[in-house]
Amino acid sequence: LQGELVLPSSKVKHALIRISYPFGNKFSTKDFANKVVEYIKSDLPLFSDQEFTPTYLPDLARVILHIASNKITGRFHVATHPITTPYQFATQLAENLSFVNKVKGCPIEKYLKTSNSVPRLIHGGLLTDKTEAKLAIRFHSWKEAIDQFTKEARF
Questions:
Q1: Do 149 and 33 contact (CB within 8 A), yes or no?
Q2: Dist CA 34 CA 114 (whole Å)
Q3: What is the pLDDT of residues 69-80, one digit of tens each?
Q4: DSSP state for residue 117 in the 8-state scheme
Q5: Which tens digits make up the pLDDT trace of 126-155?
Q6: Cα 98 to Cα 62, 120, 141, distances in angstroms
Q7: Whole-prediction pTM value?
Q8: How far apart, in whole angstroms, are the C-alpha atoms of residue 144 and residue 80?
Q9: Cβ distance 9 to 2 under 8 Å?
Q10: In this structure, are residues 28 and 87 in contact, taking their beta carbons and an 8 Å threshold?
Q11: Coil, strand, or helix at residue 132?
Q12: What is the DSSP string of 30-86?
């Protein structure tokens, strides 16, 4: 956030790229899809009512290459579409991976009421229409991205 606030007054040509919940790297423990797989395997619930838009790493790589190659400046949102929930994301991931474990869901409000909860947005997500139009790039839907990721990752 501090960087975002300073950049406009710095007079430096820049491109700012916003992402959320990145996934697409099977080998990273920080990868959102890998974390979701661990949640499913551990019978931990995923939020059924939190809205978000995860970022598929191949889409991000394409955008970074395009922006850098063409020296484009501005602010860009890179994420899948449409808005989904962690529970829906997990359900699709589990289906693609033929998991026996059933995905468990819970409302985020229940989590936020616990003593050790971390504050989280309930209604989030990055809108990508302007980025897609300006860069003439179409981002994957989250279902398309999960399909491609699970096919290529071979869990």
A1: yes
A2: 25
A3: 999 999 999 999
A4: P
A5: 999 999 999 999 999 999 999 999 998 776
A6: 29, 30, 21
A7: 0.91
A8: 9
A9: no
A10: no
A11: helix
A12: T-HHHHHHHHHHTT--EESS-BB--EEHHHHHHHHHHHHHHT--EEEE---BS-B-H
